[in-house]
Amino acid sequence: MKNSKLQAFIPLFYLVWSDDLLTQKEFTTLKEFIASRNWLSEEDKQLLLSKIDINTPPSREDLKEWKTVIERSIDDKIAIKSIFDVVVALSDKDMNIEALEPDFIKLENDLGILGEEAISNFKTKTGSFTATSQTDSHFDIQKITTLLDGDQAPIIQKVKSIISRPEFAYETGTDIDFYREKVLVWCKILAHENLGNMAYPKQYGGGENIADYFAIMETLSYHDLSLVIKFGVQFGLWGMSVQSLGTEKHYAKYLKDIGSLKIPGCFAMTETHHGSNVKGLETTATYNHENQTFTIHTPHEKAQKEYIGNAAVHGEMATVFAKLIIDGHDYGVNAFIVPLRDTKGNTLDGITIGDCGHKMGLNGVDNGTISFDQVVIPKENMLDRFASVNDKGEFESPIPSDNRRFFTMLGTLVGGRIGIPRSALAAAKSGLTIAIRYSDQRKQFGPEGGSEVPILNYRMHQRRLLPSLAKTYAVHFALQYLTKRFLNRTEEEMQEIEALAAGMKSYSTWSTRDILQECREACGGKGYLSENRIDALKNDTEIYTTFEGDNTVLMQLVAKNRLSEFRKAFGEMGSFGIINYVYENAKSAIAEKNPIATRKTDEEHLLDSQFHLQAFIHREKTILASAARRIKKLIDGGLEAYDAFNVVQHQMIEVAEAYLERVVLEQFQLAIQTIEDVKVKEILTKLNQLYALSQIEKNKAWYLEDGYMEAVKTKAVRKMVNQLCWDIRPDAVALVNAFAIPESCLAAPIAV
Amino acid sequence: MKNSKLQAFIPLFYLVWSDDLLTQKEFTTLKEFIASRNWLSEEDKQLLLSKIDINTPPSREDLKEWKTVIERSIDDKIAIKSIFDVVVALSDKDMNIEALEPDFIKLENDLGILGEEAISNFKTKTGSFTATSQTDSHFDIQKITTLLDGDQAPIIQKVKSIISRPEFAYETGTDIDFYREKVLVWCKILAHENLGNMAYPKQYGGGENIADYFAIMETLSYHDLSLVIKFGVQFGLWGMSVQSLGTEKHYAKYLKDIGSLKIPGCFAMTETHHGSNVKGLETTATYNHENQTFTIHTPHEKAQKEYIGNAAVHGEMATVFAKLIIDGHDYGVNAFIVPLRDTKGNTLDGITIGDCGHKMGLNGVDNGTISFDQVVIPKENMLDRFASVNDKGEFESPIPSDNRRFFTMLGTLVGGRIGIPRSALAAAKSGLTIAIRYSDQRKQFGPEGGSEVPILNYRMHQRRLLPSLAKTYAVHFALQYLTKRFLNRTEEEMQEIEALAAGMKSYSTWSTRDILQECREACGGKGYLSENRIDALKNDTEIYTTFEGDNTVLMQLVAKNRLSEFRKAFGEMGSFGIINYVYENAKSAIAEKNPIATRKTDEEHLLDSQFHLQAFIHREKTILASAARRIKKLIDGGLEAYDAFNVVQHQMIEVAEAYLERVVLEQFQLAIQTIEDVKVKEILTKLNQLYALSQIEKNKAWYLEDGYMEAVKTKAVRKMVNQLCWDIRPDAVALVNAFAIPESCLAAPIAV
Q1: CB-based burial of residue A670 (10 Å sphere; 0-12 exposed, 13-18 middle, 19+ buried)?
Q2: With contacts defined as CB-CB under 8 Å, which chain A residues touch B551?
Q3: B interface mutation test: which of A363, A496, A646 has the most B CBs within 10 A?
């Protein structure tokens, strides 16, 4: 094709034949174009048409030659930006081809070719910036580990060294019985190392160190999660129920043996028909005056205890929650120690145990059902810290209301709602470590003619994992805060702390659920192989959103607590008036105080921690006031409170969520303020900004509806989230390494 | 307490002692209040204070008496709405207590009591409306089943009757080897029933009915999902690769035996180092001129075939994708039939098989790795429909570009991207049937003093499940549409259909992932027990978002196709100009055409299908134009195309998503137009409205940013979503029953 007119068609021919996106239709378009050009001779047309005959395609050599011709013509010519520019370059200088520009541009468009895109594939590479991003830690990893571990560093180190021993190699078989036994053996080792009794009084052989107990729960969660749940059932639920609900005589009799795992036991609260609504439990404990005993009884099949950990195989005793009946009067739910098996493992008379069988996860824990058929226990087995039966056979309690007494009892068990979210946090850390390390190594696709690129360099992949990494750091500090509040609690603060624990339990476990889902998908097929452990992490933690209180139910409780606090806070005025006032005030406050804030998009502002916190607080307050107002309106309109709360359930979740997000952000910010190391402070500040902005982005519909931000600002937030992901990417591997999870626990071959 | 001043305090005392939410702080508040009332005598004060001494609480009898007093005073008095009203009712008429109203209101607020809420618990119940909602189907279930099944009803019925046989009872053991064998046996039964060869030509013993083949895949998915994947690997991937990539000689030699499962086989494309980027496969097929054979070879460990279904145990042959090398020249990826095992199951020389081992799910499928060490196969084993080696040992192909040829080959395999989303759809239907039936029976909590209420009556629970139900119906009709488009495809439409299939594969499998997550949580602890099958449904489908193309990668392809179509559609003008034009036009069009539409919130408008479709189309077009403009700008600004597409990856996902949502809504609407039965049309119209509005709600941030809707409207949409959930709830059980899933397949005890 030496004819310059024909030369001009080479780039199009090449694209039509080589591009995998062009079809039959494009051939037709090109044919019609050629046929209708009046500046081509009939002979030229025939020649050109022959080159796009689907039945006689060009040879591979033709294609190669065309490519060479094109490359030569555009090499290093920056000015060439469209197919037509190539056409011009290929045609004779003296031919007035530039007049044909509209024709060729139209053809390009008809063919759906984006000239610049096609052209860039021929040019000499200046180096893709996507390809050049890579791991390059900018801070001292150990310093972050030290910060995360805090005062618990010694116990964390001790637990890590124990679970890294060879006997803690993961069980990879699918035999449930074997797995359950192995988990029991592991628990015995931990008991032997004095980890199980860490929270119990020194008087009964314990470590009297609740802070360490929680750190143990969290650190154990880097290992098998069945282990941590079995550990929690035995030493937390079973042991703590004795400690919190019982009295001196129970401590003396049981605590040492529980702590040493000599008495494996259960926490038997949930029944088939009553899980969330535990006030409705139906198991009875009837007082027998004649011999000062209680008869524990399951009135019907659906009142059996269900999902009880340690019940199916190992439990010898249980704390059983049952309605106390004296002389036909119901005194509400109380707790009793009931023996289930003898030391040889034989089930005792009147006890029927069922096995929950195979579960989605946690198959190393022997969950079971328990039914009682008129089981008689001595009076002393009543855990009598909050209620008792006196010598005359009369009910006695410092708390007259059955309801109130029951919730006081439950309140003492709030520790479980600290252990679980911390365990969930550890699982998220494991998942992120595996997924981020893999994504840093796994390469796929790349610039035309260049090497393949680590998938962590792709923006979507960063979006999947890095906001999750930021959130995990944020939750870490928030759970440290929750733990400290719990350890230093006063009676006064108990309700707030209970609500905070219920909320953080939901926030952390839902966060882990979402993060592990992303990790699984981010690791593709490798994430599906059990050897890489995302399987176990995901399926074991799946129930975390349900047990220790269903998250959705807990969030309603949190919201109710917030509403109640809100009302108290504005006690000086009539409640409806104040609600309206706060609501309206909040709405107008932004505009009045800073008319341009809703449209402010400069980088300094978007990254300002004060802006973040104020935005979170504004959302928290406004949603709360709005919910309070709506409920009041519904009830005034004649709805029963129960119905009114049902109508606003969806909004109640938002009330709780906005509160928790504010707490989490605030604690992350406060933690950063204490950091002295400049580099550590710098990277954690970036993570904090990413957490703040990605939450704002998630909630941007609310900010837009509220008028707190305008579209220009929410769009700028999105862009900044992308930018922060890109900026954090080189440090991502170092940031997960700072979790310092033992390699033997990570175990995933893809995370090496 | 006959003193009327003291009587007035009864309601407060009762609340303080009985309410589980009041604490120490409230006691203090109340004490201070009493102590500072100057209208109380010192004696009165002492008496009152004695009633709130934490050390001498009232007896249970006191509490009960107080309650009776309160109830008597307010019984049937509608006018009583606050605690203070009770105070008034309890005090002497002649006492001027009303003047004390501000005092008591302040106290209520300080205590955080919402009077109306507290009072409503004492009133005679008028009947909670939350409690009264119940299952009550308003249409003929069979008519919906008939509509869903369509022309495929006979084959669906046949498959259902086969998988309901006793020999298809689920495998509940955890032994992988046993499970794999059982799944093979099941597949053999299906082959024997002529279901495996349904899509093959009649000439080779097949049913030549691709529509029925897809219906089989979907219906089998009500049963074990390992079964459907093993079935798909054998008859779909392995058989169809021979049919699509091979020629007559291959059909004659293999198809019958593949269809009868006499030759179990594999589809060996993915390698450890190349999954999404299959163009980069490294396995080689080197042509040997001397004896007209190919040598198949794995150059290094990471080039082994991985995740290959049927490989670990059963496969005797495989379609292997490898780069064809002739005389040192690389001719791109082609497909070859390679024997792996003899009929006794012994691995052949040069073949090394690995086992992928335990997976998160699908453990009835024997996924494995395959390595080739200089394995020689005859020339005739090349699947030579698109490329071949002629007698002279020269490469021949009607498609000169290696790239284009490879994608043409892949295009013929698009059927897999129809089977998988339809299988995912069936899994979502199973999960929803289990979760909705359970939620209709499971009761928890209830109005004060009333019975417990089905959890499906709670708004959050409805929000969890009913939009998912609507989406599942929507996806059903969209997948019917995709299937019809595929069956009636012309060469012209192939690219569009390939993109649609890739997109619907992502849309359906992500939808199933989300739905099964909600189902698991909605069923609480029961959802975690393997016996209720959400475990298997969830874990088996987990990999659906990865295999047959990673969803995120596929969505990028869909978006690129949309961009290309967009450019073609506006061929008449210069591309940048037109993009700007469309973009700006779209933005102003709404306001110009209908200035009040952005704030329109009447019910008729919100439920109008035209409004829904226009909103979806507007979003689709605007996002597409915006992405096109942004990419153009980035490339013009000097970025390589590869980098530019990385920068906008997040936006590309939205381009694809908006397109798919529009298609799904449109097809659901079209399907409803064909319905004649009034009641069926009515309920499906409601479901369609719920799908449309819940998607708009999900995307409301976008609509607000774009200005297409204002806050007043997006808030009205949220309210309407709640209302539709409430309205659909009584029909929910009937709507899942209309899926007509065999009870033996559902199997979950909680779904009976």
Answers
A1: exposed
A2: 521
A3: A646
Of B112, B529, B706, which is closest to A357 when you measure between CB atoms?
B529
B724-735 residue pLDDT tens: 999 999 999 999
Q: For residue range A319-343, what is the model confidence (pLDDT) as tens digits? A: 999 999 999 999 999 999 999 999 9
Interface of B with A in 490-519 (CB under 8 A): 491-492, 494-495, 513, 517
Contacts of B550 in chain A (CB under 8 A): 521, 524
What was the pLDDT predicted at A595? 54
pLDDT tens per residue, range B428-487 = 999 999 999 999 999 999 987 789 999 999 999 999 999 999 999 999 999 999 999 999
CA A552 to CA A558: how far, in whole Å?
A: 10
Q: SS3 string of A650-706?
A: HHHHHHHHHHHHHHHHHHHHHHHHCCCCHHHHHHHHHHHHHHHHHHHHHCHHHHHHH
Average model confidence (pLDDT) across chain A: 91
Query: Could you tell me which chain B residue has the CA closest to the CA of A715?
Result: B705
Whether A178 has its CB under 8 Å from any CB of chain B: the answer is no
> Where do we find the tokens 């099941």?
B186
CA distance B53 to B71: 24
Q: Which residue has the tokens 């941007």?
A: A700
CB A312 within 8 A of CB A349: no
CB–CB of A290/A354 below 8 Å?
no
* B110, B457, B524 member nearest A546 (Cβ): B524
With a CB-CB cutoff of 8 Å, which residues 586-625 of chain B face chain A?
Answer: none
Confidence of residue B529 (pLDDT cuts 50, 70, 90): very high
With a CB cutoff of 8 Å and minimum separation 6, the contacts of A745 are: A163, A164, A222, A223, A430
Q: What are phi and psi of B246, to 5 degrees?
A: -95, -175
* Mean pLDDT within A666-674: 98
Q: Looking at the DSSP assignment, which residues form a beta bridge with residue B353?
A: B370
Is B378 in CB contact (< 8 Å) with chain A? no
Res. B573 pLDDT band, cuts 50 70 90: very low
In B674-703, the residues whose Cβ lies within 8 Å of chain A are 700-701
Residue of B57, B407, B545 lying closest to A521 (CB–CB): B545
Using N-to-C axis directions, what is the helix angle for A83-90 and A60-74, rounded to 10°?
90
More confident residue, A105 or B164: B164
> Which residue intervals of B637-710 are DSSP H helices?
641-647, 649-673, 678-698, 700-706
Question: Does the model's ipTM exceed the 0.90 cut?
Answer: yes
Residues of B in contact with A276 (CB under 8 A): 444-445, 524
> B20 and A121 in contact by Cβ < 8 A?
no
Nearest-angstrom CA–CA distance, B12 and B111: 9
pLDDT of amino acid B572: 41
Q: Does A346 touch chain B (CB under 8 A)?
A: no
Q: Which domains does chain A have, with CATH numbers?
A: 4-124 (no CATH), 165-413 (2.40.110.10), 417-751 (1.20.140.10)
Of B109, B359, B649, the CB nearest to A571: B109
Model confidence band, residue A92 (pLDDT cutoffs 50, 70, 90): low
